[in-house]
């Protein structure tokens, strides 16, 4: 009966240490590349985190401005309505009632238009500031494709 040959045995004349050194070199090379990639990913993630925090802070600021403007508009509207009701309680004639009512509606319409304009400006600022990081990122990405 012939001796059974080991499947994992190296052929004669081949030094296993030589392959071991090559394997070590490949493993070290792979490890160093993995470390580099990890460090680059950390930098990118840190930048993204900072950008997200800045965006959140900007959104909170705009939200506060819009909320305060809305509260101010509601306060002005309530005060104008209460003043109008006080004036209506002292009305002596239909013509005086109509005059007060017409004046009130006109002033309320103007106030609503002014409030709409100021709110539009606040929302436009919020949209511009919210879109700025995306615009910046797009410009940066497009800059990478421009020929040098």
| SSE pattern, N- to C-terminal | HH
Number of domains: 1
Termini, distance in Å?
Answer: 74 Å
Number of helices: 2
> What is the averaged pLDDT score?
86
- Radius of gyration (CA) equals 37 Å
The largest sheet, given as strand count, sense and whether it forms a barrel, is: none
Any idea what the shape is? rod-shaped
> Which segments are poorly predicted (pLDDT under 50) over 5 or more consecutive residues?
none
Q: Based on DSSP secondary structure assignment, what is the total number of beta strands?
A: 0
Helical fraction equals over 70%
**Roughly what fraction of the amino acids lie in strands?**
under 5%
Helix/strand-derived category reads mainly alpha
Write the layout of secondary structure elements.
Layout: H1 16-89, H2 94-145
Helix pairs in contact: 1-2
Protein name: Phasin domain-containing protein
Pfam families: Phasin_2
Domain Phasin: 51-136
Could you describe the 3D structure shown?
The chain is an all-alpha fold and 148 residues long. It has one domain (20-142). It is 85% helix and 0% strand. It has 2 helices and no strands. It has helices at residues 16-89, 94-145. Helix 1 runs antiparallel to helix 2 (94-145). The longest helix has 74 residues, at 16-89. It is rod-shaped, with a radius of gyration of 37 Å. The model has no long low-confidence stretch (mean pLDDT 86).
List keywords for this structure.
2 helices, 148 residues, mainly alpha, 0% strand, single chain
């Amino acid at each position: 009966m012939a001796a059974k040959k080991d499947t994992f045995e190296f052929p004669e004349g081949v030094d296993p240490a030589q392959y071991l050194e090559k394997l070590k070199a490949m493993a070290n090379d792979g490890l160093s590349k993995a470390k580099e990639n990890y460090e680059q990913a950390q930098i990118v993630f840190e930048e993204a985190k900072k950008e997200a925090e800045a965006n959140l802070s900007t959104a909170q600021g705009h939200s506060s401005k819009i909320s305060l403007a809305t509260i101010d508009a509601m306060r002005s509207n309530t005060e104008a309505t209460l003043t109008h009701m006080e004036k209506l309680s002292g009305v002596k004639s239909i013509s005086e009632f109509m005059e007060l009512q017409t004046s009130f509606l006109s002033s309320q319409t103007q106030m609503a238009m002014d409030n709409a304009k100021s709110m539009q400006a606040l929302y436009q600022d919020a949209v511009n500031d919210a879109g700025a990081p995306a615009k910046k990122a797009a410009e940066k990405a497009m800059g990478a494709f421009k020929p040098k």
